[in-house]
Amino acid sequence: MVSTVGAMSDVVLVTGASRGIGLAIASAFKAAGYQVAATCRSEDDSAALAAAGFFPVTCEVTDAASVDAAFDAAEAALGPVTVAVANAGITRDVLILRMSDEDIDAVLQTNLAGSLRVARRAAKSMVRAKRGRLIFISSVVGLLGSAGQANYAASKSGLVGAARSLARELGGRGITANVVAPGFVETDMTAALTPERQQAILSQIPLGRYAQSSEVADVCVFLASPAAAYVTGCVVNVDGGLGMGH
Ligand code: NAP
Questions:
Q1: Model confidence over 122-133: pLDDT tens digits?
Q2: Domain boundaries, the chain
Q3: Ligand 1 neighbours by CB, cut-off 6 Å
């Protein structure tokens, strides 16, 4: 039977929706007619998300109880979450000889273990509903590697193994699991790079420009839509061609 995820009333939960790509993903799902539970970590962000028409929930992805409570709150208000986007992520860039245990633990706990916690709680409701879409926000860095980002790259390539395992484990329950791997996205971070560094990066990108956050978000909406019912275990690069072949 073809999954009907993507219907107007479906509930999506997006982690790390206070800003950046997560906020763009939440906005794109809202524009597509979904009810959106947007997670954040501060009172101010919660108020801003509520004012923008999202259902704000507090969620610290390094804390399993917080993740479970966020889903419980969203589902009590909106109904079962059938689309979960594990977007929350951090970097602690440093060369390996100087990388502290804290640099390793913080990145793996947030990006990899945090995403697994989100998937575990999401799967509980999706198995019951017999349908669902798990979407993991990785990075081109997880596929290509990047000097000074061994912790981050490990966390992001780990999401590929996680998603493909869940695609196998949960496929029979009508649940898909996919990875979105953005390249360089137009953010404050990329704007702050020197013109020389920007030019060096752009010369490696076949499309010759950075991505807009909305271009990452649109792919997430597609993966949740009925049109993507037969797409699972995939890594979808949204990187202007930077990481192709990986
Ligand atoms: P960002 O602007 O730094 O936003 C990160 C988001 O994650 C914020 O909402 C932040 O919440 C949340 N977050 C961080 N740690 C958390 C935790 N422990 N628990 C719950 N929420 C947490 O990052 P971004 O650039 O939008 O990136 C979003 C995702 O895309 C990340 O997974 C990143 O690795 C990936 N990505 C980004 C790029 C890029 O060029 N920007 C490229 C490839 C992949 P607070 O506001 O409370 O801190």
A1: 999 999 999 999
A2: 11-237
A3: 15-16, 18-22, 40-42, 59-62, 87-90, 110, 137, 139, 182, 184-185, 187
